[in-house]
Amino acid sequence: MNPQKIACMHCVSPQKIFTIGEGHRIAVMGEQSPWAYKLFPEICQAKSRDDFSPEQLKEMGVDLVFYSPGMHKEKPFSDVGLPTVCSFSGEKRAVTVDQFFESFEGQVALFGDILGPQARERADNYNRVFERKAREVFAITSKIDPGKRPKVYFGGKRNDLTSTQGNTSYMHWVVSIAGGDYLPAALQGDYATAEAEQIKAWNPEFIFLSAYSDSTNFVTQAPEWAELDAVKNKRVYRIPRGVFAWDHASSEAPLLMLYMAKMLHPGLFEDCNLCVEVRAFYAEAYEKTITNQDAERILTFLPPM
After folding, report:
1. Is the same domain home to 80 and 164?
2. How far is CA 254 from the centre of its chain?
3. 137 domain-assigned
4. Is position 130 within any domain?
5. Are residues 18 and 83 in the same domain?
6. Structural domain tally of the chain?
7. 92: pLDDT strictly greater than 70
């Protein structure tokens, strides 16, 4: 298999492909972030929509479709003769941090295996960076007594606080590694909905909002949430969006772990300079050089200059 025109029918697939240096092979994908287009200009040639029919993809010369059962069924693609690979499946779920690391790195390795030796080399390099950075955070937070972990709620996709991720989801593990007590772990499913009354009963100490939210205002200025400790104590934070939204199985997961750990445990991470960390990660994981101003803009939800 040596695909040259890939259709990414799962939102996370494009970032995995351009992370390992193969963005030029993407023919179809959902719209990416401004930072992705700036740092990986080769993806600009891809058609930025993911609603093509299998027949249309076939006519376009697509020679591989990455899909996820949660978003698309495989059969319509294979019925018209399109080769397919299931890039993400929720059937086997990580139940420990070590399993999460193994699963996350395995997803990256899958793309490397499919796209050839050079891609696999880049995938292996990325996984080494991911493992080292994530383990550095976990080495500190794993020593925190469970009773001293602050209560954390994540939600807010499309400005809906009740939209969250449940037990054993990506955000469950990222928050746990960052040293938080992840409240939506009481819910089932990668994508879950929390009742408003449940959020109030949990009374989170910290709220982290999806990178796919517009601001913190829909929480901090809403009377409905005014009595939450996180709101009263001004601990409502928005998650950055670098080359991809950090809260959606992002290649920048180690940066999100650091970002949250620094908010949750400032005393333990007082020496962590997030701008320095972002620049170093982009250099190691993506082989891209960015400036301090670039890093600051990513951390403050701003597009490239």
Report:
1. no
2. 10
3. no
4. no
5. yes
6. 2
7. yes
pLDDT over 70 percentage in the chain: 99
Domain range for 180 is 146-299
pLDDT digits (tens, 9 = 90+) for 287-301: 999 999 999 999 999
- Is residue 58 situated within a structural domain? yes
Q: Is residue 304 part of a domain?
A: no
85 & 174 share domain: no
63 lies in the same domain as 175: no
pLDDT digits (tens, 9 = 90+) for 27-79: 999 999 999 999 999 999 999 877 899 999 999 999 999 998 767 789 999 99
CB atoms within 10 A of CB 155: 26
Radius of gyration of the chain (CA): 19
H or E segment and range at residue 58? helix 54-59
Determine the pLDDT at residue 265: 98
Q: How far from the centroid of its chain's Cα atoms is residue 100's Cα? A: 13
The rounded distance, in Å, linking the Cα atoms of 115 and 130 is 20
User: Residue 162: helix, strand or coil by DSSP?
Assistant: coil
Task: Give residue-wise pLDDT tens across range 220-248.
Answer: 999 999 999 999 999 999 999 999 999 99
Helix (H) / strand (E) containing 128: helix 117-141
CATH of residue 244's domain is 3.40.50.1980
Contact 43, 18 (CB under 8 A): yes
- In this structure, are residues 251 and 126 in contact, taking their beta carbons and an 8 Å threshold? yes
Name the strands in the sheet holding 206-209, side by side, starting at the edge strand that comes first in the sequence: 181-182, 151-155, 206-209, 236-238
Collapsing DSSP to helix, strand or coil, 107 comes out as: helix
